[in-house]
Amino acid sequence: MQDHPLLEALHSCLKLPIIILNHDLKLLKAFFHASCQPSLTTDLLDELALLRNRKSLLPFTLLTAPSGLSLALYPFQDYFFLFGPFQLAQNLTKLSSLAQTYPINQKCLDLKIELETYQVIETSHLLHLIHYFFTDEVHSLKTEQAQITNQILLDIRKGLSENLLQDYPSEEEDQGFDFEFELLESIKKGDLQKVRLFLSQDLTPSSYHKNLRSEKNYSIILFEKLSQLAITTGVDYHYAHHSRDYYIDKCEACQKTSEVLLLRESAIILFTQKIGQFNSHSYLISNILHYINQNLSKKLLIETIAKEFNFSESNIRKLFRKEMACSIQQYISRKKIEEAKILLRQQNSVTDISNSLGYSDAAHFSRSFKAMVGMSPKQFQTAPIRDII
């Protein structure tokens, strides 16, 4: 380990002395810029012997003298790595997730090294880099995330406590949320006429201020609710999520409140129409459509679908054609080709698309695509969008 060529590279990058000791604290190797032999004082070796027998949950121990001069001790496998000494120029509380501090006297660091070249401005960066070098892990990332989460929870509790001291929501605010509930119920039923009636009224709860950012925030929440509602009623989740993301992007680009309101109305109408398409079907056909949409990556056979819903193949064919005005196999093929178009526009390869949509091979996929679209997958992928709309 002490002869690993990357250690010398690490020394060159850090511009810090590196001293390597074995478990018995015998000097194995040292890297210095100056041409000198390191001399570990007896006091320092005594302190290291004490630390050797201590267990620490943190990767580093900072041996720090009263002057701020420090050595970073990093135990790894059966070795002890010492980095420094360097002048500590950072609040030690910022290093609490990486290192424990261990006070030593000034004599421990009498290593006869020119110290003026060894200044470390951001000690935490140094320790993170060393730890990553040895373990390929970023220590304390989860710890930092936990600290952020705890702070958020504290802020939420504080906000709730403050709200308890305020008046209860007004009747107007309650009516606003009842209004949204009724609107979503109408969307769930695919009742476009009733939804349009709702759209003639204000959609934003009165708890929101009527400014651009508040309207955007409420719209984004509503887009998420609409997409989840659509998925639960049988709409393809790819379509629902893509539509949601599209509306969110458009919403963020809006410069006026009026633009946000128009966009929100568009989303509500679109999702209502899409949900209405599924609500117009019988319970069985709606479930079959949902099953097909969720399993486009597989080779879908009528036999498999019939077994899934405990119906005979002949009954499935008959009921499906009656409601959908096409055979079940035609519907499956059309849905696969619609998905293939999206994947082609995302520059996926024909082979990958063929595999992901359950075709037997790329040639079979290409033949099916050309028969339905009128051009090969490659031609579709390279053609301008205006030529294929």
Automatic annotation (TrEMBL):
Gene3D superfamilies named in the record: Homeodomain-like
Any GO MF annotation of the entry: sequence-specific DNA binding
Entries under InterPro entries matching the protein: Homeodomain-like_sf (IPR009057), HTH_AraC (IPR018060), HTH_AraC-typ_CS (IPR018062), Tscrpt_reg_AraC-type_HTH (IPR020449), Tscrpt_reg_HTH_surface_antigen (IPR024022)
Domain HTH araC/xylS-type: 286-383
Source organism, top-level taxon: Bacteria
Pfam hit, one: HTH_18
PROSITE patterns listed in its UniProt record: HTH_ARAC_FAMILY_1, HTH_ARAC_FAMILY_2
Keywords: DNA-binding, Transcription, Transcription regulation
PANTHER family: ARAC-FAMILY TRANSCRIPTIONAL REGULATOR, HTH-TYPE TRANSCRIPTIONAL REGULATOR EXSA
Protein name: YSIRK-targeted surface antigen transcriptional regulator
Organism (species): Streptococcus pseudoporcinus LQ 940-04
Lineage of origin: Bacteria, Bacillati, Bacillota, Bacilli, Lactobacillales
